[in-house]
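Blackboard transcription, Thursday session:
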Amino acid sequence: MPQYAFHIDTSACSGCKACQAACRDKNNVGFDVKWRRVYEIEGGNWEQKDGVFTSLPFSYFISLSCNNCGNPVCVKACPTTAMHIGRNGITVIDSKLCIGCKYCEWACPYSAPQYDPTRKSMTKCDLCEDYVITGKKPACVDACPVRALDFGTYSEMSEKYGTENELHPLPDPVSYDPGMIIKPHRDAARAKNENAVVADKKEI
Amino acid sequence: MNAVTEKTRGNSFSRRLFVKLSALTGALLLRKGKKSDDTASVLSGYLASGEEKIIRTGCPAHNCGGRCLLKVHVRDGIITRIETDDRPGDDVSDPRLRACIRGRSYRARQYHPDRLKYPLKRTGKRGEGKFERISWDEAYDIMHREISRVIRQYGNSALFIPYGTGSYTNLNGRWPAVRLLNLLGGSLGYYNSYSWACTNIATPYVYGTLNTGNQRQDWLNSRYIILWGWNPAEMIDGTNSAWFIKKAREKGAKTVCIDPRMSMSAVALADEWIPIRPGTDAAMMSAMAWVIISEKLTDDDFIRRCCSGYDSTQMPKGCENEESYKDYILGTRDGIPKTPQWAEKITAVPAATITRIAREYATLKPAVLYQGYGMQRRAYGEQVVRAGAALSAITGNIGIPGGWASGLASQAGGEPFWTTFPMGDNPVKARIPVFLWTEAIIRGKEMGAAEGVRGADRLDNNIKLIWSVASNILVNQHSNINRTIKIIGDEKLVEFIAVQDNFLTPSAKYADLVLPACTQFETWGVEDGWKYGEEVFLTPQIVDPPYETKSDYRICADLAKRFGVWDEFTAGGKDEKAWAEWIINEYYRKTRFPEMPKFKELLESNAGVYVRPVSEPVVALAAFRKDPGKHPLSTPTGKIELFSKPLFDMKQPGEIPAVPKYITEWESPFGSEAEKYPLQAIGHHYMPRVHSTHDNNEMTMNAFPQKVYINETDAGKRNIRNGDMVRVWNDRGALVAKCKVTSKILPGVIDIPQGAWYNPGEDGTDFGGNINILTTERWTPLAKGNPQHTIMVQVEKYRKG
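(Written on the board underneath:)
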């Protein structure tokens, strides 16, 4: 089974959250969970000299859902096998088996699995499996007004976009093998050097 | 009777379902901070039984800046999912019209438990928000009685239907109400808008036309694009504008965003962000002109052939000795050369940066200088429009592929119509500038040419009756709320107010009568592009109007019956669908789109939209550039007027100069007012709302809560921390809202995204975060437009009591 992957063009993402809205609408998820999250990265300082500003801040956005990792630590962390790689190669949750222990949430470095207090179960992005098996792309991808998201098998995506999967402040991908290819924003290197932070973390 | 209405009345099922859905979506979407029920599974479980239909339609049209295609899933008469354009292809000539967060979140608005359901009559004091349910019969009786009385007592010019874009298709919104009143003898008219009053008036003084924009595909021919105060990623400004900029960058164009805020566009569409002090754009533009002129980077041939008033050699007759554009820039007369060093102190942009941008713009040709509209909703908004156009002119970036003339930039080669519904002629000829309606309430009879009245020397009435359709102007969106509510709260001034809308908005709370309108998913309509584009959307009725709601057209048609003009109003019995058919067959097919499919064909195809692909984008002013003698502009000289004699003749050089100038604003960091109110406040167009529409949509507002954005240095001085509640105030009023401390805004500037619903506490402090509690009713000198971004304020950490 091929691994699926998202391409995330952070050089073009404006943080408009059309992807998140499309996800909510399609998957009927309430506000306790965000299957697709849009992180705002902010850094840099203002330096004033003689009334003008010489140094400037910077910012970019990262739109992230489940990266369908090749090495899914969520699956390993799950004590009941609820979290498993399904028959389409997509990591999914069997809600009948899920006891809501949140081990997967703690394990995942991307915050993909999230506990839904209403369903009393862990939930997460399933890559719109029902769409994907019919050849459609996930709702979020087909929502992007600037076409900054794409989706396909990892080999399709890497052929089109390369294999870059590192971006500050995302975790080192080596241990997870995420299905995620990134086009870095122009300020990505600066963000790393200056240790830029996620703005309004609590709201994500 | 109309089929739509018949069907609704016969359908109690729809109503039952709506109750259930409202409860469900309410639980899901509206209870902030509480655990939500699992509406989703309940909803999908409940709905799974029905057969699914997918209908392609235009996104409900507000004044959002875009027009997009939706694929609406319907089961059992309920909208269950909203997808967007998935037509094959998606190339530059005919890109997918993908909806933003507002369109994708529409179910939460559609099934909002607070939807108006019945006609309401005021019971408390005006503005108190107390109402009782009445029947449509009684509502129509009241409307008929009040309109008849005011016409009898004062005359038709005492009636007024305000500006409003809460429903903005070719058929829905205020248009049917205007048509009805026109049949009854008319009502006081207005001109201009709250969006772009200054550029709408100033652009023709330069170009003799508003159609100074190329079709947007032409941006891909540009080498350099300045997004000046322009934020298409958030404000949209034509569906796909942001994507076209992205494509232009992929082709190698360099992009620069000049804005007080690091906007979404500055982050995602620009190679560089240059923060600038609000209200000083014309100073930077003038300094760029100084560099371009001093370094001989001007396009002299273009200036000689196509411009007037550039220098002393081309001054219009009778003005030979007046100050030319070049005189102003070089400081020949006023002794102030508009150098980058001069501008640096005003704009807070380093002189070296101004110089560099000027050189880049003048040499990396063809280049686009795109002006956003925010910077012209300011004290002297007219100047910035003309100053930008002057830069395009002196560099010769006009009338060529990849260039851009600046100014309002309506699309050349045919632009969208916005509305085509025939409103008929208004027998009342007097029109006021749209922003001056409160003046027309308190002293209409004193208003004449000095206040911009057109069509009559003076008004013969004060406004006595307001019928507000799909508009939140009455309270929320007009300047200086504390003043406005005093005026409209006085029953001796405006004697009757009717508000027709989907929700009990802050404006509707001031109504004497509230009429519940349905949404655009619940009636027929036609839409075309927002400013740009080559599309026509058919928006069929997808679900039934819930409860006793009716379409704007139906309400007016029912009223027309009371007035005995039903036949004329309905043009022999047309319902909403018949008008949609008329608009497509008799209007679009006979004007812009003769080749488009007929109504029936378009409807049956379920395409939702007709698009004419653009493979060779039209370039504005190309014929003029080629041969200005043969294709003169309709300015007095037939040329691009850097010096305007009509403006010179107004003899108000301090505020309406003949050449574009930077003028210090009446409230600014440079005046004594800054001692008390040291911060500039601006109110940008916010992603989760369309003006005030969607402010109660929890799905959009959860993603982008209302906040006051403040720079970390300004916050630090005030011991304000991220997430604190802050109080913002000036002499006109005060608001309280959560703040976001950020580095993404220029120090000295705060941003209060406009459109939040006014929610006053006992002492009048607004807890909704509405910027208009702080804005001024003073109008701009030439356009008589709204200066709602010119505000000085103070901020402190909010302490209860």
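Lecturer's comment: Chain A touches chain B through 53 residues (CB under 8 Å).
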